From TrEMBL, chain A:
Protein source organism: Aciduliprofundum boonei (strain DSM 19572 / T469)
Lineage: Archaea, Methanobacteriati, Thermoplasmatota, DHVE2 group, Candidatus Aciduliprofundum
Residues annotated to bind carbamoyl phosphate: 56-57, 106, 134, 137, 264-265
UniProt name for this protein: Aspartate carbamoyltransferase
Family: Belongs to the aspartate/ornithine carbamoyltransferase superfamily. ATCase family.
Database matches in NCBIfam families: asp_carb_tr, PRK00856.1
Gene3D superfamilies found in the cross-reference section: Aspartate/ornithine carbamoyltransferase
Gene coding for it: pyrB
Function field: Catalyzes the condensation of carbamoyl phosphate and aspartate to form carbamoyl aspartate and inorganic phosphate, the committed step in the de novo pyrimidine nucleotide biosynthesis pathway.
UniProtKB/TrEMBL annotation, chain B:
Protein name (database record): Aspartate carbamoyltransferase regulatory chain
Key words, A-Z: Metal-binding, Pyrimidine biosynthesis, Zinc
Gene Ontology terms for molecular function: metal ion binding
Recorded coiled-coil stretches: none
Named cofactor requirement(s): Zn(2+)
Domain Aspartate carbamoyltransferase regulatory subunit N-terminal, first and last residues per copy: 6-97
Cofactor binding remark: Binds 1 zinc ion per subunit.
Keyword Metal-binding: yes
Residue sites binding Zn(2+) per the record: 108, 113, 137, 140
Alphabetical list of HAMAP family matching this protein: Asp_carb_tr_reg
Purpose: Involved in allosteric regulation of aspartate carbamoyltransferase.
Length: 304, 154
């Protein structure tokens, strides 16, 4: 089902396939924690093509590959490669494909992972293409929710913050809707979820600009950073900066079992005191990037 | 219909593009690059009453269309028919048909799409709706409506 397959968009994975990924990821947990050794990917090489910086994603892929006994080649600074000499992405991919068994690509242009998958004979995993897709982030988000609640169908999930530019929440909203969750969208007017994303959701989500409207109902509060670097006009950023702040006081109104997630890095959206409450799951979520990526690597390389 | 056809003279050789959705005739001319002195007669009737409501009709003397041009017309006027005229007679008549995939005739409107960079690929779109026409880029997944399509036809 997975051997040799490209992972480009979350939309290409069925519920059954996601369940398999989560099941394998659960089996990977002790290896990801370093409690057990594995040589499942011994002799396999992962090529990481990071055309823009993303330390967290790159290192979690590298950690995943090393934990399974494989090795990693690649770059995270394209200015030191032939790309700076004008080489096309298609050519870079063809060359790296011949040096490795699986490729992970991060690129600033949308659709680049799809293009890479066309030119590579080995599997390609999309680690984020511009404002497009970031399927492995969505999978680790879903895995974290799944770990907590066992089932995603029927959960109330509030997506909070920058819903306009946040690539993470676009894919996640689609996947949550597909899996039957109820979605609440909380953002300032300026940063509302684009209509073409809302059109793809099964049910029309509740939209509001106040966390207070959803805090009592939400099972998951998925908070995102308002990304200063995405605003063409700094004065626009100033209008919405600091719109939302999750505090332990606010969480007193939340459900007993509600969890707070964040794709990280955070700036001031979540007060540090929240880290010590029973609701915080964002560091667990970040760690989950490793077992989920281990599962994907093992599945597309056909060893599980 | 008889009454309407009298408004524009018959052509000897060329094409008649009929059943163009109301108001789209000028856009049909635009995508066929007919925008000035082309050396032959172009007749255009807009807002003609028809059984379907209203339509536009374009007649072009001494001009024929290739497959690529017919596909372009299908994108913005999916109800159109193309009649080929020879010696005042219709010798060929066919309805344009929008395929399920559009390859190489429209560029993606997203400037940050990888197909708009220097890469060895042609643009490809899935037709996700035929009425109204909506295309989705196979690479960046951006959707384009008719107005965007007209602006980006190659």
């Amino acid at each position: 089902m997975f051997k040799g397959r490209d992972i480009v968009s979350i939309k290409e994975l069925s519920k059954e396939e996601m369940d398999i990924i989560f099941e394998v990821a659960r089996e990977m947990l002790p290896i990801a924690r370093g409690e057990r050794k594995s040589d499942l990917l011994d002799g396999k090489i992962l090529a990481t093509l990071f055309f823009e910086p993303s330390t967290r994603t790159r290192l979690s892929f590298e950690s995943a590959m090393h934990r399974l006994g494989g090795s990693v080649i690649g770059f995270s600074n394209p200015s030191a490669t032939s790309i700076s000499k004008g080489e096309t992405l298609a050519d870079t991919v063809r060359v790296m494909d011949s040096y490795s068994d699986v490729i992970v690509i991060r690129h600033p242009y949308e659709g680049s992972a799809r293009l890479a998958a066309e030119f590579a004979s080995n599997p390609v995993i999309n680690a984020g293409d511009g404002a497009g897709q970031h399927p492995t982030q969505t999978l680790l988000d879903l895995f974290t929710i799944h770990q907590e609640f066992g089932e995603i169908e029927g959960l109330n999930v509030a997506l909070i913050g920058d819903l306009k530019y946040g690539r993470t929440v676009h894919s996640l909203a689609y996947a949550l809707s597909y899996l039957g969750a109820n979605i609440y969208l909380v953002s300032p007017e300026l940063l509302r979820m684009p209509s073409h994303i809302i059109r793809e959701l099964k049910e029309k989500p509740v939209e509001t600009d106040k966390i207070e409207d959803v805090i009592e109902d939400a099972d998951v509060l998925y908070v995102t950073r308002i990304q200063k670097e995405r605003f063409p006009d700094p004065t626009e950023y100033k209008k919405v900066a600091g719109s939302y702040r999750i505090t332990s006081e606010l969480l007193n109104k939340a459900k007993e079992k509600a969890i707070v997630m964040h794709p990280l890095p955070r700036v001031d959206e979540i007060e540090p005191e929240v880290d010590y409450t029973k609701h915080a799951r964002y560091f667990q979520q970040a760690f989950n990037g490793v077992p989920v990526r281990m599962a994907l690597l093992a599945l597309v390389l056909g060893v599980v | 219909m008889e009454e309407q056809t009298l408004k524009v003279q018959k052509i000897r050789n060329g094409i008649v593009i009929d059943h163009i959705p109301c108001g789209m005739a000028l856009k049909v001319l635009k995508i066929l690059n007919i925008n000035g002195d082309i050396g032959s007669t172009v007749s255009l009737v807009m807002h003609v009453k028809s059984r379907m409501g209203c339509k536009d009709v374009v007649k072009i003397e001494d001009r024929f269309l290739d497959e690529r041009e017919i596909d372009k017309i299908a994108l913005i006027a999916p109800t159109a028919t193309v009649n080929v005229i020879e010696n005042y007679k219709v010798v060929n008549k066919h309805k344009v048909e929008l395929p399920d995939e559009i390859v190489g005739i429209v560029k993606c409107m997203n400037p940050r799409c990888i197909t708009n960079q220097r890469e060895p690929v042609v643009s490809e779109f899935k037709v996700i709706s035929k009425n109204p026409v909506i295309l989705k880029c196979k690479y960046c997944e951006r959707e384009m409506g008719v107005e965007d399509i007209i602006e980006n036809i190659l």
